[in-house]
Automatic annotation (TrEMBL):
Membrane-spanning segments: none
Its biological purpose: Catalyzes the ADP transfer from ATP to D-glycero-beta-D-manno-heptose 1-phosphate, yielding ADP-D-glycero-beta-D-manno-heptose.
EC number, UniProt record: 2.7.1.167, 2.7.7.70
Residue intervals of the Carbohydrate kinase PfkB domain: 2-292
Gene that produces this protein: hldE
Name of this chain's protein: Bifunctional protein HldE
One example GO MF annotation: heptose-1-phosphate adenylyltransferase activity
Superkingdom of origin organism: Bacteria
Coiled coil: none
Pathway connected to this protein: Nucleotide-sugar biosynthesis; ADP-L-glycero-beta-D-manno-heptose biosynthesis; ADP-L-glycero-beta-D-manno-heptose from D-glycero-beta-D-manno-heptose 7-phosphate: step 1/4; Nucleotide-sugar biosynthesis; ADP-L-glycero-beta-D-manno-heptose biosynthesis; ADP-L-glycero-beta-D-manno-heptose from D-glycero-beta-D-manno-heptose 7-phosphate: step 3/4
Residues given in the record as ATP binding sites: 186-189
Region (Ribokinase): 1-308
Entry GO CC: cytosol
Domain Cytidyltransferase-like residues, every copy: 335-443
Length: 462
């Protein structure tokens, strides 16, 4: 079990679209389509741990109007007996207005004053009573008053006394973290703590060793955004980032903290824990809002590092989950299908046009048996895995699914695409799945480019 102590809050989202400027002021008018509450701050660390399959114990102090926060925790089957309510405080709410995947404004309601010694003792007592079943402790410090210097030092002493690993996501006052097992600052936070600018790797190394020594840490792990991560332990180790698409860094630090905690609760290998957290960060920054990652997504990201595209080839069950996740991120899903027996220029241009109609392109590929039924016993020329792999190798293709039926209707039911794409030869015909997709688009083929023509030419030459 992993314990999470820190500043819990609600991330409140107003999702919408904007196509005009207000006549009252030079600001966009956002038409709100969806309103959503998520656990934020230390709560987002909990979200990520739960997504990874961890058992979690939580403790914090929240304020008045706490019903919604408690409800969010209970919805996730979290024991709230370690949550203490101080009616003199505000329950923290961070509200974000997002239009067309872009954050327009954020406004906060919060209390930042330190909690009283009475509430410090409540948290410490709860942690002490449960210490035997705790494998690792995570402190998520958003500097909103829960992790006071006094409480933080007491928790560090409790962890050290019981030989429990403790990882801290720190803020400005690093003196709170003396004698901790590990802290995880970003480069800016490290720069402030070290009292020096960090412009080069030499600066980074100097600052890292300085802070590690001054705080008597076992380990210092620095997140470096697009530059990766650096670990100061018995030696200095740096790994590069693997993130390609960065849509939103909200909660990325929470994901790194949770994934480090998850991995190190099961293993002693710090370098592998860094690689695991690095892959988790690459996933989460490609999503909008305070997001979580799953083991499956991390494994897919790690496979990308090996330059394999097999992660793009998925089965019926998995594509349904992927499509649901994409919809949750407000991604526009495009679907098309075909035999793609001999991949040629016409196919590639067709797929490029299809991808331009949305955010993610999913391609259904007829299985060997399906192609034989449709095209005759001499087809396919290429095996279904070969065809799927070649399609997955195209940058415009996001996922490939092999289906065995004569039509992709069952597959379309699982994906529920926003846009269903077919060739212009379907003009005036009923397109399978048109009753499911939001819209159907017909795309011109490249004249003279077809698998049938290629096969005929090969036979004539032979």
């Amino acid at each position: 079990m992993i314990a999470v102590i820190g500043d819990f809050m609600i991330d409140h989202y107003l999702w919408g679209r904007s196509d005009r400027i207000s006549p009252e002021a030079p600001v966009p008018v956002v038409e709100v389509i969806k309103e959503e509450d998520r656990l934020g701050g230390a709560g987002n660390v909990v979200n990520n741990l739960l997504a990874l399959g961890s058992d979690v114990l939580v403790s914090t102090v929240i304020g008045k109007n706490s019903e919604r926060l408690l409800e969010l925790l209970k919805e996730k089957n979290i024991d709230t007996s370690g949550i203490f309510i101080d009616e003199s405080r505000e329950t923290i709410i961070k509200s974000r207005v997002i239009a067309s995947n872009h954050q327009v404004i954020r406004y906060d309601k919060e209390t930042k004053t330190p909690i009283s010694s009475e509430y410090e003792e409540k948290i410490l007592k709860y942690l002490d009573e449960n210490i035997e079943k705790i494998d690792l402790i995570l402190l998520s410090d958003y500097e909103k008053g829960v992790l006071t210097k006094s409480l933080t030092q007491k928790i560090i002493k409790l962890a050290n006394r019981n030989n429990k690993k403790l990882i801290i996501d720190p803020k400005k006052d690093f003196s709170k973290y003396i004698n901790a097992w590990m802290i995880k600052p970003n480069k800016k936070e490290l720069s402030t703590a070290a009292g020096m600018d960090i412009n080069t790797e030499e600066d980074l190394i100097k600052a890292g060793w300085k802070v590690k020594k001054e705080l008597n840490l076992d380990f210092l792990l620095v997140t470096l955004s697009e530059e990766g991560m650096a670990l100061f332990g018995e030696e200095y180790i740096k790994i590069p980032t693997i993130a390609k698409e960065v849509y939103d860094v909200t909660g990325a630090g929470d994901t790194v903290l949770a994934s480090l905690g998850y991995y190190l609760s099961k293993s002693e290998d710090l370098v592998e824990a860094m690689n695991f957290a690095n892959a988790a960060a690459a996933v989460v920054v490609s999503k909008i809002g305070s997001a979580t990652v799953t083991l499956e997504e991390i494994e897919e990201t790690e496979r990308r590092i090996d330059n394999s595209v097999d992660y793009k080839i998925v089965d019926f069950e998995k594509i349904a989950h992927i499509a649901n996740d994409l919809r949750a991120q407000n991604k526009k899903i495009v679907f098309t299908n075909g035999c793609f027996d001999i991949l040629h220029l016409g196919h590639v241009k067709y797929l490029q046009k299809a991808k331009a109609l949305g955010d993610k392109l999913i391609v259904g590929v007829n299985s060997n048996d399906s192609v034989s039924r449709l095209k005759g016993p001499e087809r396919p020329v290429n095996d279904e895995y070969d065809r799927a792999y070649l399609l997955a190798s195209l940058e415009v293709v996001d996922f490939v699914v092999v289906f065995d039926e004569d039509t992709p209707y069952e597959l379309i039911k699982r994906i529920k695409p926003d846009v269903l794409v077919k060739g212009k030869d379907y003009e005036g015909k009923v397109v399978v799945g048109s009753d499911i997709a939001k819209e159907v688009k017909l795309i011109d083929f490249v004249d003279g480019k077809s698998t049938t023509n290629i096969i005929k030419k090969m036979r004539m030459e032979n």
